[in-house]
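> example.struct
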């Protein structure tokens, strides 16, 4: 109770300070009555880590410098299909039931079979009069074994979806409004460039009708491995090396058994990690170009002032931290923390938001900004108050998980990530606990030495979140630890 009172007082004083010094108009409230509804573009990269964004000059100049960065943005499941399902539905995986990239635990076919496509951010916006387009990666394995590329999910007016499990950057197929179209291995077929061209074309055509707003979901494969760069960017970042935080190739004593078995990385392995990091950056330069082309096209048609651009990733990526070679899916910061940069009407430039945001927040945020009712099943919260700069009580923690049938490498786990701790319970019975205030690189596992009372409190909190749904998730996320 005392914490609630103190938090409320802090936010009240902050609000007075904002009022005294002036602030940008709230997001979604910058135009007079009768203004056109805002447009939305979500750019959802694949496996992009936070640090790499800092090295992309056009994204920095056009999005970061003109928008707001969410410094504590996370995914609730660090894997492609579960995370993308969460973005589309605004739900934790335990509610949308997609736990893997492959059927029957996950993949497109699972998302489709449980009926998730009947209500997504696309259907909400389309029902409100938006013209919608998807270009790039939808969900892993689309169109599944029961359907054909002729299938276009509800809510999408224009559809340019990658077919199958494909990350080759060349020699791929798109379902173009239900018709499979093959692309070859010529420079003009480079995936990011093709998707950018389709997006530019859509913006140009959609801009002919100023009375109809649009929503674009743009999902390039970059920088997912093999991270093939466009020919013009081969050789870029010649001296770049993967980040070397304290956790890079560090001692793993005290870690769970699955990680203690990892040997120290060899010089050859570290060199391979660095080479992989350079390729990832090289592949992202085409996405950097994509952002610049989109901004230029919006400006050309007079749509930039009324368009929100959300730049993010489906999950993070580790490259040598905790002796782990390339990959994702752990509960560690490198895997669950992802970029989120927002530019748009009423969004302050050069601003950094410290409150926790999640991938489950994006769908309700777009609905809120568009004036569309948010379905009761949604677990996430609209970020609109944070975009507008208004102080508000916010979440203190969230649920993170991973499921697998094999416990040989990374076992299944359920975790609680709070503003203070990372607490993880593995299917093997082992636990991890890190005090992020003292140990931000998650080096020292305190699970065996911390007080039983703290462990019990964290475990109870974890249990409440892993069973929450809808309003219960939103309500409990604002309750601080006792």
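> example.seq
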């Amino acid at each position: 109770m005392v914490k609630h009172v103190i938090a409320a007082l802090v936010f009240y004083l902050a609000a007075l300070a904002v009022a005294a010094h002036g602030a940008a108009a709230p997001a979604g409230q910058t135009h007079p009555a009768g203004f056109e509804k805002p447009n939305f573009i979500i750019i959802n990269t694949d496996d992009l880590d936070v640090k790499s964004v800092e090295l992309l000059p056009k994204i920095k100049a056009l999005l970061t410098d003109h928008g707001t960065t969410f410094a504590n943005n996370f995914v609730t499941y660090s894997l492609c299909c579960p995370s993308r399902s969460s973005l589309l539905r605004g739900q934790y995986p335990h509610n949308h039931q997609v736990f893997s990239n492959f059927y029957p635990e996950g993949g497109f076919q699972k998302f489709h079979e449980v009926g998730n496509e009947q209500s997504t951010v696309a259907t909400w916006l389309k029902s409100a009069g938006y013209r919608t387009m998807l270009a790039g990666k939808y969900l892993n394995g689309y169109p599944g074994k029961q359907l054909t590329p002729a299938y276009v999910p509800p809510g999408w007016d224009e559809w340019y979806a990658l077919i199958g499990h494909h990350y080759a950057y060349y020699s791929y197929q798109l379902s173009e409004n239900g018709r499979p179209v093959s692309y070859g291995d010529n420079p003009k077929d480079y995936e990011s460039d093709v998707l950018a061209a389709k997006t530019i074309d859509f913006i140009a055509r959609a801009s002919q009708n100023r009375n109809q707003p649009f929503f674009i979901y743009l999902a390039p494969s970059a920088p997912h491995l093999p991270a093939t760069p466009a020919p013009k960017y081969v050789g870029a970042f010649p001296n770049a090396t993967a980040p070397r935080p304290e956790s890079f190739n560090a001692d793993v004593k005290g870690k769970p058994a699955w990680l203690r078995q990892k040997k120290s990385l060899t010089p050859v392995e570290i060199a391979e990690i660095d080479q992989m990091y350079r390729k990832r950056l090289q592949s992202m330069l085409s996405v950097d170009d994509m952002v610049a082309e989109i901004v230029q096209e919006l400006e050309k048609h007079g749509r930039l002032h009324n368009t929100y651009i959300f730049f993010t990733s489906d999950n993070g990526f580790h490259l040598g931290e905790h002796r782990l070679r390339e990959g994702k899916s752990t509960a560690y910061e490198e895997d669950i923390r992802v970029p989120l940069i927002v530019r748009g009407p009423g969004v302050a430039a050069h601003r950094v938001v410290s409150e926790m945001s999640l991938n489950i927040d994006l769908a309700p945020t777009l609905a809120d900004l568009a004036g569309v009712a948010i379905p009761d099943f949604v677990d996430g919260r609209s970020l609109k108050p944070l975009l507008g700069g208004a102080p508000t009580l916010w979440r203190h923690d969230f649920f993170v998980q991973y499921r697998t049938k094999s416990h040989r490498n990374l076992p299944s786990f359920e975790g609680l990530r709070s503003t203070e701790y990372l607490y993880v319970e593995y299917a093997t019975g082992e636990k991890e606990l890190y005090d992020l205030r003292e140990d931000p690189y998650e080096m020292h596992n305190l699970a065996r030495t911390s007080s039983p009372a703290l462990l019990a409190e964290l475990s109870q909190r974890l249990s409440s979140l892993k069973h929450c749904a809808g309003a219960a998730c939103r309500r409990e996320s604002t309750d601080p630890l006792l």
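> remarks
Residues 412 and 427 are 5 Å apart (CA to CA).
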